[in-house]
Amino acid sequence: MNKKSSKQHSKKKRPPLLRNLTLFLLILILFLLFLLGIVYVKLGKIQTSDMDESQLVTVNEDQNMQDYTNYALFGIDSQTGSMSDRGNRSDSIIVASIHNKTKEVKLLSIYRDTFVSINGKYNKINAAYSWGGPELAVSTINRNLDLNIEKYATVNFKILADIVDSLGGIEMEIDSDILDNLNNYIGDMNRINGGNSAKIPSGGTYTLDGNQAVAYSRIRYTAGGDLARAGRQREVLEKIFQKAKKSPIKLMSAMDDILPQIKTNMSRQELFGMLLSVFRYDIADQQGFPWDQKQMKYNGIYYGFPSTLEENAVRAHKYLFGTSNYQVSDELGRINQKIIYRVGY
User: Which protein family is named in the record (predicted)?
Assistant: First the structure.
């Protein structure tokens, strides 16, 4: 009897370290579940708006695209904070291509001045969003690059500043050649967003706050023009992504301010699923489209003319999906010829 009770007693005992570890893991799991629950609820603050699929054009001639999910990201030039689908030009246009298995991400900026077909009318690609909202903007990207994008997200200037501020700023190397333009834009962002962000006194490495980071991404009237600006936008985006992965709790604290400034046709479930995989995502590369272009005047306005659109689209498929010698669609071929006819090269 005594031996039996002694055995039962010994089975009930656990080393203090094991008990503490078990309790710690239980608390950690409950805390993580609590955080995920909060995040799921907060995702409901995002403006969700379905696209009219009858107005959406996709191109699916590259079989390699089935291994990827492609997204269109738009930054609209709304100085009033408006998120209207009409009347706001998309001054930042980025295609994000995510490999479905590896979660490798490639970014492709599309220069805002690129001369393309917008449903048969030829103009700068950033006009598409203003003319027809996300349906026309996404369709324009698909038609001129032979892509199959069906998902989009749109933000305005203020959200970028709020995200950077919530993360405690991002570190950037500032070239002295852009100081005048940068400081002018900092003053502009202080006026638009509110705040009193300091001007940058000289070239060097700085931790930029929200308004300073947005100002940096908006600089255009310097060497490289729109191409350099698109590169700076991708640079800021990558810095934010890297810091957010390291400081997710900081980002969560600003969600109530950030999320209402996003508009997308992705559901809360889709967004939550992406969030659960965020630590697997890795930005492998970032480039700009078109790679080869000419800045020229047409009817008195400067445009970026791809030389040629077909060659640049082939290169886009090689870069994004690893497709060699991609054969463009018949429609893209016709668009290419019409651009050549207008430019005369």
Answer: Belongs to the LytR/CpsA/Psr (LCP) family.
